[in-house]
Amino acid sequence: MEDVGVAGGRGVSAAGSTEDRSDTVCIVGAGPHGLIAARAMRKSGLKVEIIERHSGVGGLWDIANPGTPMYRSCHYISSRNTSAYPDYPMPEDYADYPSNAHILAYIQGFARKFDLIRLAEFNTEIQHAEPLESGDWTVTLKHVPSGDVCRRRYRALVCCPGSNWHPRMPALEGAFSGEIIHSAAYTDSDQLEGKRVLIIGLGNSGADIACDSARSAAATFVSVRRGYHFVPKYVCGMPLLEFLRGSREGVPQHIAELPLEDLFYIIVGDPTRLGLPKPDHGLLESHPLLNTQLIHHLGHGDVVAKGAIERLDGNGVVFKDGSREDVDLIICATGYDHLIPFIDPELIDWQDGRPQLYLGSFNARHPTLFVFGLIEAAGAPYLQGDQLSVMAAHYLKARKDTPDVARAWEQQVRTDVIDLKHGMHYIATNRTANYVNVEVFVREVERVRALMGWPEVTPGFYDPACAPERAAAE
Asked: What CATH topology corresponds to 174-230+269-332?
């Protein structure tokens, strides 16, 4: 593929011309991971632009963004003190598990503090991005309100598309006279009021919606094909991740030393008592449910567990056990496809609809193409996302300043084989295709960073006030 000619200037390019921004990294998406990448790369001395199709930062956390799967009752699934951006703690007056409104305000505050908003071009979407032999990218953009189209040349493309924008709907036999929606179209419990509701699937969103429905609907059913492990949000009064990662000071020794499976059983009990199937996998071999409210509602009969669906049947649903329930509304909490719709899918290797990249982010065949935010690990991976962005920035700098270092990195990405699932035996579903063992992931990111001699993201890297020695002095 040959390079195209370029022409300078800003705004809408003339037909056939390309604006030259080959000194600039194009970051697609102003959600959490796009902002992480922008801060890291700018800190490393790169010029960046953020292209965002919506009107502000926040991504799916902004409930006003068209297509967001956000719903009003949604809270952060990780706790406040374990989920913050490096050098930007969440406010101390936030709850242990902040609301979606608080998370949006936090993301907006992060963007303001580190002066990222001025780097963003809002209401603009990427229509297509194509690599050039030089490693640069030709990017076609459309200004959403006006429909104006322009084309630009960037030095690299950083894709932060978000994982929950492309709903995956199940194939259901039969006909249904009621309403069927994906959970992405659920916003508020007003949609459930007085209805007989069936939720298909029991990820964390499905469990949340079932709890909303238990309080608002005339009847609530959940259809599941396999069992899930329930995990409490609190252990000994501590948010779960703080209990797992902390000193456990004050926790009785006989509790602190219990295996997690035993500890969670003591707190949650056996969900098969409530009509749910027995899990066919280990505790962390698929996504566990951080939702003991659902146990409460199942135990009170406000939610009824059902098995897999046989067929739709007019104003009802027939299940594989032969039972039938009248239903007005079916909500499919059946997950999402991970798509990057503005690039040719052949530029990336895929498995079960998930991109397969070195350390979840780096592309061996197109080293100036990066993808952040599409791996899944237990806990909040923002620190590792930050470190990966810094590594990407130093590679891009090396392409210009120290080509031997850049070639060494490209060789590393092509030849280093890492099993990020090592030690875990995830069940074989499309959802687990990008699951990683978080301990292995953290260790390997650090190994590769140290191998290249690139800087480590430690407290104070972005804000000296957050360095431990500064905090101790104050």
From this structure: FAD/NAD(P)-binding domain (3.50.50)
